[in-house]
């Protein structure tokens, strides 16, 4: 008996492959960290003798969700300040609190809490942008989740670096330190065109070429930001990115609520990726990225939750629903953005944007076994006419029952296999009390 | 020891009273079906000796949620047809399936499933509109939930009645039969101005006056509907309601995605209520009711999920979030629709629209003990800076831990006290298989 090998036999396998196959009576064979095969159940029985079978007769197995944009450690600031416009929220609440509290311990504890929340919601990979990315990488490794860590950059000094050059040199150092890590990749992560000026952006383009990694940046989050940039620089932020050589198929541009037709064409022509965070954009009243139009133009659109301080959760199933609802309404077409497309945005499209689609994002032989199941044996999810639509329109993060990352089971029947749940809750509560007691504003 | 009396001592009591008080260190005393008192904990200890204390140190107690518009029995058609425009969805999928399957058994089984889903999500009262309202009333009574049952009316024959007069006479009969029921009220429920013509609407106005009940009707759901009505009748649907005498403080108008300024003024002046169903409207790409403007004009706005066939769930906490997100974005103001207002819309505003705000909708002495708790001892809900914002922006229906309706506990630590969960799931699955196997379309 090969103990490294096991079979999962769900009611449905939602492959998210090129044909969007939804298979019944199939087994997914996992061998160590990889999907060894997806085969009809009778064939599995004859080919794989005596392996462990995880039988899930009322469940759907899908690729793990990929949260394409987040700031994990900000979980400790969840609900710290709500019902405020973006710049007030940032400059009067979030930035002062970060200035007071963000250190390695904050980032480690916040990221741990966020990883546990993510895994219970079916997320097997996240793309982060925050201070102390080395700590984020360590924490992801410790907790067994796949991560793309942002090599952050800003013009101004913070707790992580003093100036653009130091950010980039620390980023290069971290990139080197992480070589050989199988589950942690990096993207260069300048905050935004309005906080990272032209010269460092040009250096980032060069760094991208020398390291061969993608670039993860906030772009066109609000109309005011685009307008101010235009007034100060005579061009729109996206044009600045084009000018410095960053508009290409390694660009993952977050938010993009403000897009004109020629920009959509440019994104399509250059193969740039859009990371859509609908709930954050809506809550901050920033607008809605035109995702139906982007997808029609063949732009790769992935989905992220943004940080829990702005959204206020890391619930990717909720985010998919919000993307579907607001996307259909914005397109004035209920038939646009069908459920199958939403699932792709939250899985394989995220993997593409992060440059890891050969490793993860779908259920196909040879890929990493990053998997999640949805349990339909619930009052809230019956009857089931179409499992894919049911996941998008009815399922909820607590309907996620099992999660495997690189073949290792982290969630079993809704329970963590190895995270210390109450200790994580207690730690978060302590941080909340400390941060609340030293609140400067609001 | 008075066994009919007990105290609940949560971390927070979210009263939803006129002052929007959020109390700490308080006890809510329940006596039989009513809230006897809301008192500081030390006072409770001295005044109420030896009564049972339900101590919930990590939880918030709030009024039960009121689902102000739904079609409960349609739970059996959840996910039957998705990603389609309203009229295609209705005329090619939902209406044919209803024609084949809707009978008393369908309504009883679907409503039971929906009530269980509702209660687990913190809903203590729903406002329904569907065939066999007598069965809906019986089912609500059997399951111990508060309900406002729609005395439905249409121009055309259905399984419930042959013509407008028969609908109204059966409605009057049911109204009479339900006199003396403490937890079941009625509203006259003509489907919409485009399906109930002028003469029956005038009769409904007279019936409203004679029975003293409200009127619950779909109005201005889509732009096409408004345009077609205008072409056929020379006036907009809301003007038709004014013309026949239905535009007053007993009108509860559902959807209202299409509203011009003068109509908002008219609604405010007449004291009419708007029942906002954002997720259904978004999913069908019908637009968004201008709720920030309606609330600014002092129109009472309540929230409903619509039926699970269009939304696709009865999750009021999810609906609140969607209302907040899309309402802020539509108003282009992140500070509009603060969390406190959203909770009001899902509780006391619903009670007002249903004409039962003297009985329920807030935690105040003398009201019915319709209560729900949110358990914050979760990775997904920590830390807690503001419990009200946390409920609106982070909590999820499975975070609802306890539910009491008229003082009777129906949910305890997330588990039903007396509903046969697996039997309800199995019954729904059987209906799903039967309906799927006889599918005419799609």
What report would you give on this structure?
The structure is a homodimer of 442-residue chains. By secondary structure, the first copy, chain A, is α/β, with parallel strands linked by helices. Chain A folds into 2 domains: 5-63 and 370-406, Urease, subunit C, domain 1 (Roll), CATH 2.30.40.10; 65-354, TIM Barrel (Alpha-Beta Barrel). The first copy, chain A, has 17 helices and 17 strands. In chain A, strands 1, 2, 3, 4, 5, 14, 15, 16 and 17 form a 9-stranded mixed beta sheet that branches. The relative contact order of chain A is 0.16. Chains A and B meet through helix 3, helix 10, helix 13, helix 16 and helix 17 of A and helix 3, helix 10, helix 13, helix 16 and helix 17 of B.
- Protein structure class of chain A: alpha/beta
CATH superfamily of the largest domain in chain A: Metal-dependent hydrolases
Oligomeric status = homodimer
What is the tally of beta strands of chain A?
17
CATH topology of the largest domain in chain A: TIM Barrel
- CATH class category name of the largest domain in chain A: Alpha Beta
């Amino acid at each position: 008996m090969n103990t490294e090998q096991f079979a999962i036999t769900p009611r449905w396998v939602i492959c998210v492959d090129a044909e969007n196959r939804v298979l019944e009576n199939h087994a997914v064979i996992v061998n160590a960290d990889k999907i060894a095969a997806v085969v009809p159940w009778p064939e599995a029985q004859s080919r794989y003798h005596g392996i462990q079978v995880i039988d899930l007769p009322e469940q759907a197995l899908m690729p793990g969700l990929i949260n394409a944009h987040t700031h994990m450690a900000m979980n400790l600031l969840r609900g710290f300040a709500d019902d405020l416009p973006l710049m007030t929220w940032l400059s009067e609440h979030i930035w002062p609190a970060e200035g007071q509290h963000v250190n390695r311990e904050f980032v480690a504890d916040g990221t741990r809490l966020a990883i546990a929340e993510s895994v219970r919601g079916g997320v097997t990979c996240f793309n982060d942008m925050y201070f102390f990315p080395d700590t984020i990488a360590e924490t992801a490794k410790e907790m067994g989740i796949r991560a793309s860590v942002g090599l952050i950059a800003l013009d101004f000094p913070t707790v992580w670096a003093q100036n653009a050059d130091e950010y980039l040199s620390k980023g290069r150092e971290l990139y080197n330190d992480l070589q050989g890590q199988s589950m942690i990749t990096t993207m260069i992560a300048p905050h935004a065109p309005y906080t990272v000026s032209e010269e460092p952006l040009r250096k980032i383009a060069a760094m991208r070429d020398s390291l061969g990694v993608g670039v993860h940046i906030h772009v066109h989050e609000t109309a005011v930001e685009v307008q101010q940039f235009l007034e100060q620089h005579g061009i729109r932020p996206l044009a600045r990115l084009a000018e410095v050589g960053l508009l290409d198929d390694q660009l993952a541009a977050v938010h993009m609520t403000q897009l004109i037709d020629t920009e959509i064409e440019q994104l399509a022509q250059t193969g740039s990726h859009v990371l859509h965070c609908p709930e954050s954009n809506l809550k901050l009243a920033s607008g809605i990225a035109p995702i139906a139009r982007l997808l029609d133009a063949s732009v790769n659109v992935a989905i992220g939750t943004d940080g829990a301080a702005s959204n206020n959760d890391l619930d990717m199933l909720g985010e998919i629903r919000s993307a579907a609802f607001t996307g259909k309404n914005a397109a004035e077409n209920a038939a646009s953005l069908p459920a199958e497309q939403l699932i792709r945005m939250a899985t394989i499209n995220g993997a593409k944007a992060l440059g890891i689609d050969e490793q993860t994002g779908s259920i196909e032989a040879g890929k990493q076994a990053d998997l999640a199941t949805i349990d339909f044996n619930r009052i809230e999810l019956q009857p089931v006419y179409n499992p894919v639509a049911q996941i998008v329109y009815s399922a909820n993060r607590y309907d996620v029952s099992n999660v495997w990352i690189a073949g290792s089971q982290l969630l079993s029947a809704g329970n963590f296999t190895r995270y210390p749940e109450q200790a994580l809750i207690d730690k978060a509560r302590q941080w909340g009390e400390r941060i609340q007691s030293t609140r400067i504003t609001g």
